[in-house]
Design brief:
single chain, alpha+beta, Deoxyribonuclease I, Chain A, 2 domains, 6-stranded mixed sheet, 12 strands, 30% helix, elongated
Length: 331
């Protein structure tokens, strides 16, 4: 029994040290060192395991030694570090985007269904059924290749306006809209295989808004997929330069392959210009739909100060590794 207890000690000291070190290093979340950047992703998981490890260590420590205090201090430090970021997605902080109440008209409302379909996913009907159920004004689909483009053609009747930029590199993108799209621009901000969309929409009231849709590459290296190995990821910073000069109410949406943890300014280089609709409301983890233990919010919607939020939902699985996200906004 004593040997088992000592083995348990060693195991949890190693776990405690690893969790504490990873949590502290995660402070360098905007580093171009990919391994440091990736520590920003599992903050929810870090927090849960830190709590569990703290409880177990407190239960098994008999005679307190200096290394016990050190281990507990490390765990508490890790909890503080991760709490600093996670608290923004709880009801303990105020929302950044006000809640829409006392609505008198629907003319200034707009709804968006945001989905990464996963290019290899061959189950299109669940998504088509969701679109029919939610009836969004906009559908932004990412990882769209030729097969998915053909499947989504059923939307054309209800969504007469669209922009298609298709490829087989998992970065094809399609935007379907019930509202008129004008001034459409397709850009390649930091990778010639990774498109982004800029366009202007006219709401039913006649008011115009700006929409930016993007899907930057993740901070990992892929042998057969686009990445930015050896160069700084600047797609979001380039977007930030555009948003700074905005003349219209603005929406930014997409699978950013990044965690925001409410610090939009750090990623985009903006200062209190666009805001995360999740802040003060919840995580709405959109990835990984196939693994409950590795979930975090990758699909984002940011809006300028003119907007209020009527609704945000994480929708059911569609066969992809991402859950769709649905939002309703009001000017």
């Amino acid at each position: 029994m004593e040997k088992f207890r000592k083995a348990l000690y060693v195991i949890f000291y190693v776990i405690a040290a690893s969790l504490a070190i990873c949590s502290i290093l995660s402070i360098f979340r905007n580093s171009e060192i990919r391994y440091l950047k990736m520590l920003d992703f599992p903050r929810i998981q870090f927090f849960i395991f830190l709590v569990i490890s703290l409880i177990i260590l407190l239960a098994i420590i008999r005679r307190w030694q200096w290394y016990d205090y050190l281990a507990i201090t490390g765990l508490l430090t890790g909890l503080v570090v991760n709490s600093f970021f996670l608290i923004n997605y709880t009801g303990l902080v105020s929302v950044e985007v006000p809640t829409a109440i006392n609505l008198k008209t629907t003319d200034d409302q707009i709804s968006l269904l945001l989905t990464n379909v996963k290019m290899s996913n061959r189950k299109s009907q669940p998504l088509i059924n969701l679109i029919a159920l939610k009836k969004p004004d906009l559908v932004l689909a990412m990882e769209v290749n030729k097969w998915w483009e053909e499947e989504l053609k059923v939307l054309q009747k209800e969504y007469p306006y669209s922009q298609h930029t298709i490829n087989e590199f998992t970065y094809g993108m399609v935007l379907y809209s019930k509202l008129p799209l004008t001034e459409i621009e397709v850009e390649y901000l930091n990778n010639k295989k990774v498109p982004s969309f800029d366009c202007t929409l006219r709401l039913r009231s006649g008011k115009k808004i700006k929409l930016h849709c993007l899907h930057p590459v993740p901070p990992v290296h892929f042998e057969d997929l686009p990445d930015n190995a050896g160069q700084e990821e600047t797609a979001l910073k380039q977007l930030g330069e555009k948003v700074k000069d905005r003349k219209l109410p603005t929406i930014v949406a997409g699978d950013l392959n990044d965690l925001v943890w409410s610090y939009v300014d750090e990623l985009t280089g903006t200062k209190k210009i666009i805001f995360d609709v999740r802040v003060g409301r919840g995580f709405y983890n959109s990835f990984n739909a196939k693994n409950v233990f590795t979930r975090w919010p990758l699909d984002h919607v940011f809006v300028s100060k003119e907007f209020r939020l009527k609704k945000i939902e994480r929708l059911p699985k569609i066969g992809s590794d991402h859950f769709p996200i649905f939002v309703e906004l009001v000017l």
